[in-house]
Design a protein that fits this description.
The complex is a heterodimer. By secondary structure, chain A is an alpha+beta fold. Chain A is about 40% helix and about 20% strand. Chain A starts with 18 loop residues before the first helix and ends with a helix. The chains are: A alpha+beta, B alpha/beta.
């Protein structure tokens, strides 16, 4: 008997439970806050009891917008803006490709896409150092 | 500026760890800890401004499985980042120093970070006239724990040995081993039990202390509720079989092949609080029940000595009546309800204890 003969499997529900529609209302509330005060919000999809049909339905309801961004750090992170501007779908993977967490971020630009001021300062210093080295080599 | 005085943000810059990497760590940890999703960025900013948390890791009567669990986790690049974010000033297994130099590092960290350092303990401790069974640099484990705990901020026990005595304390307990909480009574103790504990739970608990400078909410056994708030049974994908009274009677019968509930072959899921069924092991692929073996209950006190052993169904000791067990196969739904009630009443009693 091979491993594939052991019928220990998780059988996912194949129909949506309505969770996606409930989440749309929560997303709308977050979007109102973003619109009125500029305060960003987020929903952690990993912690919600959603089956794969719910996830597919939510993705279909939100659609895909104009922007897609990939970030490579300790594995890949993928962001895309949905057809609702300011509503982003974020998926984070480990460096082995395992999905670690999935979120809806309601914001103008997800924090992880932005360059942090400290990193900009360090980049500036590194570039100055590189130019200084370059100047020295040119003089020689 | 000395490296000792720099904050975590400056340390990361020096090591070439970008803020994006750090934010990803906080996002994943925040999700694991069930923090508000919007808190990840705030968590990252707070941690970056803090001085790296000094941690003194004491290994006593243990097998090194707990250290293995965290250093060989399936997402080592992400989860082992915690070792960059803390200042691990003493750890027998991981440090290069040995002998007097190692003990000197521990004493220096205690002096420099008096009242602020965190002590991590894995392994149980032989005490009293048995204390000499386990010594480090001529110092008994008991004395080293008492000395190191005196000026700490909090203690995190990793593994069931340090939390509850574990296997060294199992009958006949030849070394007279006890848990940390049997010795230290005047410091906050966070029990991260499991044999071994889940790497995400160890990392998440340390991250909580780093971020908030406070102890996470604990259950009646001192375990973080974010990870130990539900039983394995609560989140088990085989639960529907239990509710329908469909049980494997042996490990090779038709029920086992069909993936039915493992209650009757000894699964301790209904009385075991841990996050294995939802966080899972080996890169979130599986956990013992999914691999065909019942839960051993390794995150609970006295799991090695439980009545009947690992392969006897939960019975007299936990359910109060052998008749309940005898009827389980024919009245699975009723037992399912009983399990749910038992689990809820236990959580309730935990809350009542906290508020009383």
């Amino acid at each position: 008997m091979s491993l594939s003969d052991i019928p220990v499997t998780v059988e996912p529900l194949t129909h949506p439970t309505g969770m996606a529609h409930a989440l749309l209302r929560e997303i709308a509330d977050h979007l109102a806050v973003l619109d009125n005060s500029g305060t960003a919000g987020a929903i952690d999809l990993s912690s919600l009891p959603m089956n794969s049909a719910d996830m597919d339905e939510l993705k279909a309801l939100l659609g895909r917008g104009e922007v897609e961004v990939g970030v490579e750090t300790v594995g890949r992170s993928e962001f895309y803006e949905t057809t609702y501007t300011g509503v982003w779908w974020a998926t984070h993977y480990g460096d082995d490709g395992t999905k670690l967490t999935e979120r809806i971020e309601i914001t103008a630009v997800p924090e992880m896409i932005k360059s942090h001021p400290d990193d900009i300062r360090n980049a500036h210093q590194r570039l100055r150092d590189a130019l200084s080295t370059d100047d020295q080599e040119t003089r020689q | 500026m000395s490296q000792r005085e720099e904050n975590l943000g400056q340390y990361m810059a020096r090591r070439g760890i970008s803020r994006r990497t750090f934010l990803k760590f906080c996002t994943v940890m925040g999700s694991t800890m069930a923090l508000s999703p919007a808190q990840a960025a705030e968590m990252a900013e707070t941690m970056a401004k803090a001085t790296r948390q000094s941690v003194i890791w004491l290994s006593f009567q243990e097998c090194t499985g707990c250290t293995e669990s965290i250093t060989r986790s399936h997402n080592p690049t992400l989860e082992s980042l915690i070792f960059d974010f803390i200042s691990l000033d003493y750890h027998h297994t991981l440090q290069a120093a040995a002998g007097d130099a190692a003990e000197h590092a521990r004493e220096e960290a205690m002096k420099k970070h008096k009242g602020k350092y965190v002590v991590v303990v894995d392994g149980s401790i032989p005490v009293g006239e048995n204390a000499h069974y386990s010594t480090i640099a001529g110092i008994t484990n008991e004395q080293m724990l008492r000395d190191t705990a005196r000026d700490c901020f909090a203690i995190v026990t990793v593994g069931t040995c340090a939390a509850f005595g574990g296997i060294p304390a199992a009958r006949p307990n030849p070394t007279g081993a006890v848990a940390v909480s049997d010795i230290i009574k005047d410091k906050p103790i966070i029990n991260v039990s499991g044999c071994p504990p889940m790497p995400q739970v160890m990392t998440g608990t340390l991250s909580h202390i780093l971020t908030f400078g406070a102890i996470p909410e604990l259950d009646h056994l001192g375990r973080p509720i974010a990870f130990f708030g539900e039983t394995i049974h609560d989140r088990c994908y085989r639960r529907p079989f239990y509710e329908k009274g469909q049980f494997a009677k042996s490990f090779d019968d038709e029920g086992a092949r069909k993936g039915w509930c493992l209650y009757e072959v000894g699964c301790k899921g209904p009385t075991t609080y841990n996050a294995c069924a939802n966080l899972k092991w080996n890169g979130a692929d599986t956990f013992p029940v999914q691999s065909g073996h019942g839960c051993l209950g390794c995150s609970e006190p006295n799991f090695w000595d439980q009545a009947g052993g690992f392969y006897a169904p939960l019975s007299v000791g936990d359910w109060g009546s052998h008749e309940v067990l005898a009827g389980a196969a024919v009245a699975g739904a009723a037992v399912g309800a009983a399990a749910a009630v038992a689990a809820r009443s236990r959580q309730k009693s935990s809350k009542e204890e906290k508020t009383s």
